[in-house]
Specification:
heterodimer, A: about 260 residues, alpha/beta, Rossmann fold, 3 domains, 6-stranded mixed beta sheet, 4-stranded antiparallel beta sheet, 8 helices, about 35% helix, B: mainly alpha, MetI-like fold, 2 domains
Amino acid sequence: MTTETVIKAENLDLTFHTNDGDVHALKDINLDIQKGDFVSFIGPSGCGKTTFLRTIAALETPTAGSVCVNGMPADEARKNRAYGYVFQAAGLYPWRTIRGNIRLPLEIMGFPKKEQEDHISKVLDLVDLRGFGKKFPWQLSGGMQQRASIARALAFNADILLMDEPFGALDEIVRDHLNEQLLKLWDRTNKTIAFVTHSIPEAVYLSTKIVVMSPRPGRISDVIESTLPRERPLDIRDTKEFLDIAHRVREGLRAGHAYDE
Amino acid sequence: MRNFFPVITVVAAIMVIWYGASVWMNSKWVYDQAARAGTEVSFGELVKDTWSQERPVLPAPHQIVAELYKSTVEKKITSKRSLVFHGWITLSATLLGFIFGTGMGILLAIGIVHNRAMDMSVMPWAIASQTVPIIAIAPMIVVVMSTIGATDFLGKGAATALFGYQPAFMQGLLPKAVIAAYLSFFPVVVGMVKGLRSPDNMQLDLLKTYNASKSRTFWSLRLPSSTPYLFTSLKIGMAGALVGAIVSELSASPLRGLGARMLTGSYYGQTIQIWAALFAAAAMAATLVGIIGMIERYSLQRMGMAK
């Protein structure tokens, strides 16, 4: 495997200035993400995991330090459309069909008409929504809508996928199913995925690298390289290896909390 | 059909109250007449008389319907006594004003949403403009516009060159349309500002990740999001335009249109004529708003926003 660094955060610091005073959201974040990695950010709410992801996407600007994506400053990478971003809610446009929603980034980025349709069909297959292209979002279940939003993020062939608790609002059965599908998708497309979650099993099941974060100020307390194989059936979650990693994540989270009390 | 009985019940109740009230309100004249002639009136005669006076205080509904029929169906539509003629004069001013007002409202809203200076400066003026009573400002607009010679939609020369004559509705159309626009732009500004700002941060962030331009964001997100707000504003704006057109006809010349019908009716105590013009205006408003409602339903359905 190659070990090309696609996302590199160095001495990252971010402070929000609010009316109630400053909030130190990120402090001294150093992290390298290699091409093809599946990285999860896990931590309690307020630990800055979403803020970190948004900083990588250049939706937030760091106060100090730098984030490089594909060797460029994050904002330049954003302008080069280096990543697809999946939000907590699907956020599909109600006035566009599913195909129309997936077409949106392609239209904005100026893909030729013919190519647009090919891309849409391809990603609809990837997320198992073939045959739903002509439906409007409200005709789909929450899980299907979120899959459509993933398809939208995949449509323009960005190598990086940034996902902010994409399955947080879904029930556990749907979530398991989507996790499994996401792993398959990752395996097939060889994308680099950064994934925010607050579920330990989800993080361990999906990731090749787990970044444990703790709050006030948001910082990285542990980085765990997963030893699980790339091929992961759902019942891998009952193996000792899985439980060991989950245990280490839990320890890391607890250590972060103890600091607080 | 589900609504039939509730609606008919309400209409029946209104009719009963109306006929009762017209007996009560018109009875004074009947008793005065009888006293002068030294005769007595029975209740039956009283009712018959109060429902068929020529200049009643409150005309009975059937008198209004008869007047409506007489002044629409029985008169030629070019006649000065035809409600169709006057209705068309008002309608043309309403529609032209509505188009002016809506266009200006949308443009102002786009400016307010995209430009901070406009956001700070335009809205207070727009609100102030609506606190001025229209009845006070309408005559001034008419006077100012006639002084500068901007009254006809097409001047006599231009219209004659085009049509061979100058259609009546074009005379004095502009001041009326401006007053109608004055009342209709405001709801459109307010509704569209709200609508164009309705996309949430997540939707705006999504477009940012695509590095979409401002105009892209406008066309693919802000404008479609504002559609439901637009139609609500258009309905209010249309009603406002009609009120503006009618009020403007009270001071415009030549004296034409539904507003003028109401005014001349009140000069000569022709209450039935006033009520007929009132009903014609109400029917026109209901039709115009109804048409916008139909377009709204169709558009939202096409856009997949109505379930």
